[in-house]
Amino acid sequence: MLRRSEERDFDAICEIINDGACAYKGVIPEDCCKQPYMPAAELRHEINDGVEFWGIEENGELLGVMGIQDVQDVTLIRHAYVRTVHRSKGIGAKLLLHLQALTSKPVLIDTWADATWAIRFYEHHGFTVFSHDEKERLLRRYWTIPPRQIEPSVVLVNAKWRALHPAA
User: Fold this and answer.
1) Which of 18, 52, 74, 163 is the most exposed place for a label (fewest CB within 10 A)?
2) What is the value of pTM for the model shown?
3) Percent of the chain, pLDDT > 90?
């Protein structure tokens, strides 16, 4: 069942994010990788800042989560993670398609540049990597991330973005 998360899901969301982030070990620069990857206080801050999580639930257990956040004139996909034991079963795809259907705005996604599997996943679903030269401008405009995280990141954009910004 695909559903919007509730307050009762907070601990499960935190657990899923931190479990899923294990895939980034050795990909995230050491000075950007903390343990846990997302402490509960940081997750609470993200939710309070407008990230709305959706999840796929089966037999009462959340299997994967993905956040959506409206920022200015775009929608961001944030914190997309699936429990390690449930990867490659279409959970991320279902969440991504659903979240895109919730907005009429262009959708942007930020991920680690060396996370080639994540980039391939988003490209498979119609996103393209935004130019390296403009990436920093987008990350500074729409995200609140540490400056150190900008260089090893990429931004992917969907067709709505490309239609509105054909020269980009």
Assistant:
1) 163
2) 0.93
3) 77
